[in-house]
Amino acid sequence: MSDLLNHPLISKRYFFPRKGTFADPFLVICNDGTQLACSYHEVDPRALTLVHFHGNGEIVDDWQGDFVDIVQQMGCNLFLAELRGYGQSGGTPQLGKMLDDVVPTIQALKQPQQQLIFF
Fold first, then answer.
1. C-alpha to C-alpha distance for 93 and 59, rounded to whole angstroms
2. Which of 83, 100, 112, 108 is CA-nearest to residue 26?
3. Which of 10, 12, 33, 112 makes a 20 to 30 Å CA pair with 45?
């Protein structure tokens, strides 16, 4: 199944990666060694953390600024997860690999499950 999900035709037709940069990326190393440049904004290490996976054609940098401020005003930490091939992240967008990246991305936070809110 992963061969189908990672087929180059799917990547070419359905993903719209673009590059972007921001300071101090939170680096996540995936199982295949690909490095993802995420962004973590902490208000309190004991607070809940909103984990945000952006949409296709977006990058982490699109969510910096007002969104970070709003989440922090609610008293939550914010983790902006980046997708492979997008923003400052390495790799090529491939659906199967992107799905496989979720676990190492969440594990990199080193926070208990009950502290995470997925968005």
1. 13
2. 108
3. 33
Residue 109 CB neighbours (<10 A) = 18
pTM of the model: 0.92
Closest CA to 88 of 60, 55, 46, 52: 60
Rounded to whole angstroms, the Cα distance separating 87 from 10 reads: 20
Q: What is the rounded CA–CA span in Å between residue 70 and residue 3? A: 40
Two structure tokens written together for 44: 């309190």
pLDDT above 60: residue 98: yes
Cα maximum dimension of the chain: 43
Strand partners, 87: 19
Q: 7-40 pLDDT, tens per residue?
A: 888 888 889 999 999 999 999 999 999 999 999 9
Q: Give 87's DSSP letter.
A: B
Phi, psi of 78 (to 5 degrees): -135, 130
